[in-house]
Amino acid sequence: IAGITQAPTSQILAAGRRMTLRCTQDMRHNAMYWYRQDLGLGLRLIHYSNTAGTTGKGEVPDGYSVSRANTDDFPLTLASAVPSQTSVYFCASSPGQGATDTQYFGPGTRLTVL
Amino acid sequence: GQNIDQPTEMTATEGAIVQINCTYQTSGFNGLFWYQQHAGEAPTFLSYNVLDGLEEKGRFSSFLSRSKGYSYLLLKELQMKDSASYLCAVRDSNYQLIWGAGTKLIIKP
Predict the structure, then answer these.
(1) What string of DSSP letters covers B60-103?
(2) Contact criterion met (CB < 8 Å) for B48 and A43
(3) Which of A42, A101, A108 sits opposite B102 (nearest CB)?
(4) How does pLDDT run across A68-88, given as a tens digit for each residue?
């Protein structure tokens, strides 16, 4: 693995179903993030984690949950999917320190909720 | 509220120069980022400005004026592969990135 991987690449899901999007990084970054990207809107932060064992809510957390059991993995769970959660989901990570603290993105998961 | 404004779309000619502007109003300022995003792909980091002035990196340069809440990304010697969306993001007082909707740049031969 080099960088950040996400799975699945794409998914079509029936409304009401539970879904977990997976994210793994091998850069030993402290901080990880989940964003959604919708046409005409900027990336919006769903949840973040500054370090393993801690998580925080972003701009649009409702309907989503996360966990950070270790440094490498940061899964995003939709407990009961709704059509408005149709979006492209990006996971990102950053060192969590330093002046720049640049975020690096995974390839994304395209989710359609019907 | 927090706001990042960028033009929705711009068109330029191969070999030319284009300037993509970004204005921002945020709760605090801890740096401004530019990312490139090709269609169907992830955003990739281009540049970071935290002090006023111009940062040059090859064909790409980024400028920041904190007093005006303004930045631009300058792309020189445009190539067809530069066709992409360019995203402006500001790190606010909570150290979270606030993102603009992006500028789609179309390069014509």
Answers:
(1) EEEEEETTTTEEEEEE-S--GGG-EEEEEEEE-TTS-EEE---E
(2) no
(3) A42
(4) 999 999 999 999 999 999 999
